[in-house]
Amino acid sequence: MNHVTVSGNGGRKMHQILTQEKSIYIQIHEMIENDILRDIILEEERVPSTNELAKLYSINPATAAKGVNLLVDEGILYKKRGIGMFVDRGAKEKIRAKRKESFYRDYVSALLCEARRLGITKEELKEMLFQER
Length: 133
Known about the structure:
Blueprint: E1 2-7, E2 13-18, H1 24-37, H2 50-57, H3 61-73, E3 77-80, E4 84-87, H4 91-118, H5 122-130
Antiparallel strand pairs: 1-2, 3-4
Helix pairs in contact: 1-3, 2-3
């Protein structure tokens, strides 16, 4: 497991940990997305290059590039030739929309399905969701 602190633009710090749980390129992809959502990297700011990521994490530059290129394919990042990769306008909202859809598919849908199997009413489910523990 690697722990790295990277200075973003404006002196903000990104604290990242690579684990064995997921492919490294997926973790790079998610790390950049998370930093955009948390305003550590803002729209139109440069993100660390694939070579910078590779050096920081002691990984193959091709692995870092794979994660970054996923973000380019999704319209989250764009390349300024000779300068680097930058966060596209509207990237934060694109990420938020994608993650909301994923949240619904992965969590809410399964919750509703199980509630139906158990005969839990909408009212009971609302009560369960909003009760504090």
